[in-house]
Design brief:
The structure is a single chain. By secondary structure, the protein is α+β, with helices and mostly antiparallel strands. About 30% of the residues lie in helices and about 20% in strands. The longest helix has 13 residues, at about 15-30. The protein is extended.
Length: about 90
Amino acid sequence: MASGRTTDAFICLRLPGALVDALSGPQQDCQDHVDAQDPEHIHITLGFLHGADEQKLADVRSFIERGTWPAPVIRLTGEVRHGSCSLQNDPA
């Protein structure tokens, strides 16, 4: 990144292939209500970094890489909290 420039970035968890496969089927079944994601792009977003410069990105990378992190428990709640997903609560 050029000196003085910033970028918007996010931190995410890639999902195991078996979980991605399990989520891909229901997405196709519900395509009248949900914009399906390409399986390669399915992830869990942990946080956003708005206007991050080179130093901020390096600090975050260093923090993540030096930690030992337990695997998170994943639960499907039925809630959608992503702006790019078009979910209709009552399609009727």
